[in-house]
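Slide 14.
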Amino acid sequence: MLVNKPNAKAISNPSQRERKPAYKDKLKEVEAVLAIQSNRLDEAKVYMNFEELKKRLADLEPQLANPDLWDNPDAAKALTSSYAQLRDDIGTLETLQNSITDAQTMAELTEELSQDIDSGNAKDADSNIGNIDKCKEIEKALEELEQMTQKLVIQLDNLEIQTLLDKEYDQSDAIVEIHAGAGGTDAQDWAEMLMRMYIRWAEKKGFQVEIEDVTPGQEAGILSATFILKGRYVYGMLRAEKGVHRLVRMSPFDSNHRRHTSFASCEVTPLSEDPSEKIDIDDKDLRIDTYRASGAGGQHVNKTDSAIRITHIPTGIVVCCQNERSQHQNKEKALQILSSKLADLAHMQHQAELANITGPQSEVAWGNQIRSYVLAPFQLVKDLRTQTESGNVEAVLDGTIDEFIKSWLQQQKTSDTTVSLRRPISL
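Slide 15: predicted structure.
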């Protein structure tokens, strides 16, 4: 029986195609992602007016060197705050530019190494054995490049969110209040889950978290909670979270394990660092109650009436604080929160007066309910205002909410632009 011997040349071409390194396609993908991120950074520089930022920073430096700067503490505080923000913005842009340049340089070196391997293969097919170490170097470099590009994407996403925050109080710290709604024990458990979601989000952003008051639920969870998140742009981002959040799941508190729907609300208020200058509070308008703080206890915490509840009688606003060491500190913190809430109320009343003059700008068709978190029978988080969705419910509940925030801010930006274009020009 004759057996045709395969042609060695015919085998070599397919085998060479099979041996085509996978890193070449991966390198092209990384280079494409880097090009996109570079373009995004260039657009951000134009939008933020990078050269003007550097000019303003240089203009402020002589003023900071003035020995009489602190003769006027308020003006000095405003000046140093502006300088720090400008330096932070410029530093962010320059750091991103350096990171992109480093990644591009590494990609170029990896490409040259790949070409060296191709050149060696063209001369001698047996040189593949000597190129194994180079291939390993390329794979290691590609792993590092992928990590660098992923980090760049996240940083530029954060920068894009920052460019959308241009309202009056967007750079302020935030007072966050969570309240359990309809749904009984499930709603109280849901309120605690919502609180954890925002705290995890803040921790990932590097923001400071101060828990001021927590009222435990009857069986599980919490009835309400008040906490402060401190960091630049905290309030601006969390404006997107105001409203009612709905949870749909198989209830762990139902013996029949039926599907339940529960609700919790999130209220966000900008924190005024020195609210006494803006809001005058008459002591006659306040009702101050003291009670023993709840919690794990400790020296003077739940052994004395150190917790404070302040009711502003004209507006009905109630503020509680129990986490400080003394009654005096709790009262001071509660008054700060109350002042911030009154300032926010005055701002909303002013906006309502403007709306009566200019007409409604945009109405949310879905009412107060802004987002649904469905855990059963399928898993989906959907924002009912922007239609933004995520199937990774676990990640969302662990604080990955930037995509929802960004979508809402973009929608508001578009809405504001449309309204300003429609507004009649005064002659």
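Speaker note: The two ends are 101 Å apart (CA to CA).
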